[in-house]
């Protein structure tokens, strides 16, 4: 039978990171490829208790819920967000099935085929996939260690009149970058001036190694006296609790959230009520802030160990030391190396990473690689970096 799949699904390629993960499964491969949190630190006992609590509420806990999301959970999120300077009433919060769904629904709400989306280049691969899936024209804005180049952004907004701009200003995936406060203020002003929506994707914002530093979100820089906040902020419990709960949220002006809720209704009616209720009890009875401190301390140790090993094994690359998040972005000294080719050799030698080019729209820098430092325990990490050295020598 001839299967007449839609253009959009045919355009959609499977994620290269998923393919790499498949390659590494069941083999003696140390993988720095996946963006995975450390399993040893999942608060499994507390999550178990939270689920027991849900079932103790009786059979009604198994019923359908409202599309916007479990009200008690949205209240808890609203309280947590206030601590980050983000003011949002319940009508401004939509629970999503991971922040991945937030990206998908926002795109569905705004994008017609051919509309332009501006992005940092490189950026989060699975967001690129979503944008391409909806037939968007995805255009990269020049970016450096402080964030987007605002002159280039200005020009590209005038030229393309994008529907929205997508950024990850705090510990980006894949670069680990944090935007300077000037750039954050700057992009907010530009978005207001040109009436352009800004998607602020913030899954890593709480994974900070320097608690004293200022990691204000762009959303929070909007003064509440101003009329309209052009920022849609999305975050998730995946990195600070566990990704299996598939629970994230998106915050924005009510008029936009209402459209997102409509889009979600047709996608999945609502996110899992059991997971949402469990998260509510977890936030109520478990010290999540203490837990975040614990994982940040451990992830900092792992990041320090990885950078120290890269130096010890004289890996010929440069990088900017990340101050949070989960990734180290390497630029190999030899600009002729194609890291996608290098990966094939690396897998044979028992180590995996993600080649940098997959994170770019258009031609990317081929001699870049992304290493995840949170998943691999300290003992294994040394073996992995030693293998990487063999591949590069
Ligand atoms: N945004 C970015 C930048 C990410 O790296 C990820 C996860 N890798 C997500 C969104 C989606 O996370 P989740 O759906 O698990 O919340």
Short description:
By secondary structure, this protein is an alpha/beta fold. It has 14 helices and 15 strands. It starts with 6 loop residues before the first helix and ends with a helix.
Describe what you observe in this structure.
By secondary structure, this protein is an alpha/beta fold. The chain folds into two domains: 7-43 and 289-392, Aspartate Aminotransferase, domain 1, CATH 3.90.1150.10; 44-285, Type I PLP-dependent aspartate aminotransferase-like (Major domain) (Aspartate Aminotransferase, domain 2). The protein has 14 helices and 15 strands. It has helices at residues 7-11, 16-24, 44-55, 71-83, 98-110, 125-133, 150-160, 181-194, 218-221, 254-268, 273-285, 288-312, 339-349, 378-392; strands spanning 30-31, 93-96, 116-120, 137-141, 143-144, 147-148, 164-167, 197-201, 231-236, 248-251, 317-318, 327-332, 351-352, 354-355, 368-372. It has a seven-stranded mixed sheet with strand order 2-10-9-8-7-3-4, sandwiched between helices. β8 (197-201), α9 and β9 form a beta-alpha-beta unit. The protein is globular. It starts with 6 loop residues before the first helix and ends with a helix. The mean pLDDT is 95. The structure holds 4'-deoxy-4'-aminopyridoxal-5'-phosphate (PMP).
């Amino acid at each position: 039978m001839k299967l007449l799949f839609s253009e959009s699904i045919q355009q959609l390629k499977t994620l290269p990171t998923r393919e790499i993960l498949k390659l590494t499964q069941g083999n003696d491969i140390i993988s720095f490829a996946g963006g995975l949190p450390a399993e040893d630190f999942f608060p499994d006992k507390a999550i178990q208790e939270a689920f027991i609590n849900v079932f103790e509420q009786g059979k009604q806990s198994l019923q359908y819920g409202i599309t916007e999301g479990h009200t008690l959970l949205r209240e808890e999120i609203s309280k947590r967000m206030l601590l980050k300077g983000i003011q949002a009433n319940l009508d401004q919060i939509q629970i999503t099935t991971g922040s991945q769904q937030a990206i998908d629904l926002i795109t569905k709400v705004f994008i017609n085929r051919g509309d332009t989306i501006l992005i940092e280049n490189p950026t989060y691969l699975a967001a690129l996939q979503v944008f391409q899936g909806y037939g968007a024209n995805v255009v990269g804005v020049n970016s450096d260690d402080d964030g987007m180049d605002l002159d280039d952004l200005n020009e590209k907004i005038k030229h393309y009149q994008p529907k929205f701009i997508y950024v990850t200003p705090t510990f980006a995936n894949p670069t680990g970058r944090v935007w300077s406060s000037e750039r954050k203020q700057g992009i907010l002003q530009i978005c207001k001036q040109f009436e352009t929506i800004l998607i602020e994707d913030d899954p890593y914002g709480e994974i900070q190694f320097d608690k004293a530093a200022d990691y204000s979100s762009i959303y929070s820089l909007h003064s509440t006296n101003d009329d309209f906040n052009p920022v849609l902020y999305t975050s998730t419990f995946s990195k600070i609790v566990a990704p299996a709960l598939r629970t994230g949220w998106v915050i924005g002006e009510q008029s936009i959230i209402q459209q997102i809720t409509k889009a979600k209704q047709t996608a999945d009616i609502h996110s899992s009520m059991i997971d949402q209720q469990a998260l509510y009890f977890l936030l109520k009875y478990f010290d999540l802030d203490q837990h975040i401190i614990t994982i940040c301390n451990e992830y900092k140790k792992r990041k320090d160990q990885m950078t120290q090993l890269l130096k010890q094994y004289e890996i010929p690359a440069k990088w900017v030391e990340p101050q949070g998040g989960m990734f180290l972005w390497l630029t190999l000294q030899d600009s002729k190396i194609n890291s996608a080719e290098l990966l094939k050799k690396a897998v044979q030698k028992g180590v995996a990473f993600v080649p940098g080019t997959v994170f770019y729209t258009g031609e990317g820098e081929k001699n870049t690689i992304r290493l995840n430092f949170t998943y691999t325990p300290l003992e294994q990490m040394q073996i992995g970096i030693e293998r990487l050295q063999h591949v590069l020598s």
